[in-house]
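Give me structure tokens for this 550-residue protein.
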Amino acid sequence: MHEKIYVIGHRNPDTDSIASAIGYAAFRQGLGHNNVIAAMAGQPNPQTSYILQRLGIDPPFYLADAHPKVRDVINRSPVTAPTDLPLKDALELLHRHAIRVLPVIDGDMKPKGLVSLLKLSEKYLVAGTDRRRGVDSTLSALARCLEATVLCGSYSDQIEHLHLFIGAMTEESFSKRLSGYDPASLLIITGDRPSIQQSAVEIGVRLLVVTGGLPVGDDLLQKASERGVTVFSTPFDTAAATSLVKLSTPISWFVDNNFERIGVMESLENLRLKLMHSGDPAVIALEEDGTIAGVATKSSLLAPLPFALILVDHNELAQAVPGAESVEILAVIDHHKLGNPPTNQPITFMAAPVGSTCSIVASLYRERGMEPQQQIAALLLAGIISDTVLLKSPTTTTRDRELVAWLEPIAGLEHREFGKDIFASCSGFSAHATLEEAVRADFKHFSSGKIRFGVGQVEVVGFDEFYELKGQLREILHQVKEADMLDLAGLMITDIYSETTLFLAEGKNELAHLMGYPQQEHHLYELKGVMSRKKQMVPHLLKVLGTSYT
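Here you go.
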């Protein structure tokens, strides 16, 4: 089960897109699906912001990018080891947690490197020139692993290279074995052999370990103190103590400091490349402050993502939130032409030739015998009014009108008055911060074969403002055309009261001969009765632009 399911509309969302996302998420939550969350792929336009503010509804969660990221596939509570952890304890961690790599961190939770079972076996098990007898450890780590009592001397955290000898022979044979070694580098393990203990102290070994918890004479300890010999007593027998000594090396001795790292906010694709091409068994994921966030391995790439999408008011990836193609899409609720991508699994797909996606969402409430909350009913009503332009658009259906009549008493609003308030407060170009924002706010891309074009739409009350800004708007359309690599960039300026659209077009000079509508002036056409981009403008452009390529 996904931790979160985002219900999300298209980029440059309009009122229908955001209202249907909020409305459908509320519908699913009403069915007990509390992991379903409304989201938006762009900031609300002025009209939508006005509606949300008037109804006291917060904007949805802003999901600017749905690309899976490193944070989505890692465990944010990784198993780690401090630099002074003995090898014995590190192996226990690897075994207990069934992991193959162990990040080593400093006191600030910042990674110093990685150790892996493979590298440990290479360094620990493969014999070298001094591997069988050499021990790289600290006295404090030795005491910890041996569970030792310090009878003489003190701990040290300094790593030392010691030579291990077992005192299990006569004193004469033992002394011969030690010849050639610096006494200060010797680590002697023995049981209740007073002669061996005495000999080790006399030559001034670095460490004498007496096994089995056996007593050590006060005279010997006095002499050891004088000679600077540290003496441990361990409860383990000689065989066990010998194994533990070899496992006392601090894990820092085995750390590979040349390790791959990646930020938690980087894409999963970047992680894939690092894992596939670096040759390392794992990549350390870092928080923004450089502390460790987790460890990613190749199995992380197979981990299920914690979120999925439900698309509303669109079904084409070109209009979807960036990264939608990399995420599981569970359902589509839409009222546009089909251009949906293939899916790996069967999904819920609801498409209907109605004027608004909010009409489909409202239908789901009514069919289930559920009544939306007053705020949600008002929001769905606003979505239908907006997308059908007060039920005047040719996309308006009988079903839209029926649902408006059903929603009105629940919302406590009359749709004509509510619609007039919506359009009067937010129509025109002045509702946007900049003219480019006005053009881009509801700008959608379309394609058919080799043809790529985009059409924006701005609803106005009268054309006076447009005529004052016409020159600037044409220049912005030219910039949009170049930036988006389009054959044509156009802007519909729709007067909701006269039900007339002026179409400003940039690109395709032959359009004047094919448009089929009166041309007021160069690049500007008058389309009486045209209000719908989806049902009137785009099909017409597909037809005439297709003709220009034949």
